[in-house]
Amino acid sequence: MSSQPRKLGLNDLPAALNLKPMAVVENMNIETNILDPVVVNRDFCRFVLEKKGVLDSGSIFTFRLLAENAGMNARVHTPIRAGIHSVIRNATLKIGTKIVSQVQDYPYYKVIKRCFVSQEEKEGKHHVKYGTNDGLAPSTQAASATLEMKTGFQSGNNKLSYGALDLTSLSSTTAEFQIKLSDIFPLMRNIQLPLFVINEPVSVEFTFNNIQAEGQINISQADPGGGVIYRPIARLDPNSVQMVADYLTYDAATMNETAKEVMSDTGLFIPYEDLILTTNQIPVPVVTGQTHTTDIAVSGRKVRSIVVHTNRFSTNPLHGVYSSEGLRKGESYNFRINDTSMYPNDVNKEHKKMRELSKVFGVEIQVPKIEFDLDLQVADNGAENQNIITGTITYEGKAQRGSLEAKHNYIGVDLRTNNSMAVGNGLQIGQKPIQLVRKFDKVLAAEAQASTQRIFAMVERAMILKDGNVSVTA
């Protein structure tokens, strides 16, 4: 009878694989290789990693976008919150033919996570690395009765300084961006992969967004061009796609600790997080009321959290296709889990929705309230009772009121069994799927539109590494 792997937590992993600081590091070598993909085009690419050392979770991928049909004066750039993340549709990490981790509709999940990044990090790091421009805060120069949103990169009224981050038609002048491995795969936020003891090749695959329509991977200010209306788009430059891989090698004792676990009778048990996506369409809510129930396919799994992105409009002038709109009135929701309602009463208040979402990420949301909901300016009957953002103020040439208000409105529920963020405390789900029940009661006619609902469930999985061979749980 074969031995079963010991089910260890992240803190029990060999020191070389754990991201927490080592007590003592006698010797460590970092070898950085620039890898070209073995296959690359504007739709797909695949990287194959070398079998050596430990793959650092901070390894990065580089991308450039080329603007097309921009005219002479148009300014083309990435959506302000999605940034360069918008170029990736799906990302897959494989060992041999086994899918270890997969993130589908990656930029939709990323814009949710970015709502919990500090303003300082958005402006000081991400603006340059990711091409984002979402470090928004109320202007202190605006009149007291209205609000104007600005970033630290704004010079003068209604003008943003993307500068060198504008996209051009030439590889030599367009901006180059980067994304960390740990930004893409939840797995890599907690562990580092021991490539030196894995027999099968480890590969990373990207499916790219290559839809030639504004809003998918770019937004722009069109150039009138003497009466000619240009429709600029941006597309991936395949020659720019590279991986800067950092391979770590520690002293012999540290490396042997990992190898000994892998070659033991039980093998090495590595717990990790992964995302499962459920997508469906919500039909046009009728004004008199409607209930929409979605089964979330997580039966039999341990679930840590769920977040929901709802896109009611095809393209937002500033956020592209990645906005998630809040309603003026008339929506409530609840989850049914293991035959029990999550909340004794349906959630129908925006402040409660915001608080529940914040619990998922363990920090307070880092976006102004006007970007999350319309509570500040809407009366109980759904009518506007004050103008929070004045209709004359623009942001990158687009009206702030229509482009920013309540465009990052999400549902979230934290299902961890304790407050620790470490893997191992997810809620065990029975044979029935989790259900999300959304009720639309007397939705305003102007907002009664069909929408696409993307539900991201963070689940717990495990990788078993034994004698150099890898198996993964469902």
Provide structural commentary.
The protein is globular, with a radius of gyration of 24 Å. It is built from seven helices and 27 strands. The protein has helices spanning 106-113, 119-130, 181-184, 252-262, 350-361, 369-372, 400-404; strands at residues 28-35, 39-40, 44-48, 54-55, 60-68, 75-77, 88-95, 98-103, 137-138, 149-150, 176-180, 202-208, 219-221, 233-236, 242-250, 268-282, 290-296, 302-311, 331-337, 340-341, 394-395, 398-399, 411-414, 427-428, 434-440, 451-466, 469-472. The model is unreliable at 153-160 (pLDDT under 50). Helices cover 12% and strands 32% of the residues. It starts with 27 loop residues before the first strand and ends with a strand. Strands 1, 4, 5, 11, 14 and 15 form a six-stranded antiparallel beta sheet that branches. It is mainly beta and 474 residues long.
- Percent of residues in helices comes to 10-25%
What Rg, in angstroms, do the CA atoms define?
24 Å
The outline comes out as globular
Largest sheet, strands/sense/barrel: 6 strands, antiparallel
- Poorly predicted regions are 153-160
Overall SS class: mainly beta
Mean pLDDT score? 85
Number of strands: 27
For the record, give the distance between the C-alpha atoms at the N and C termini, rounded to a whole number. 23 Å
Fraction in beta strands = 25-35%
The number of helices is: 7
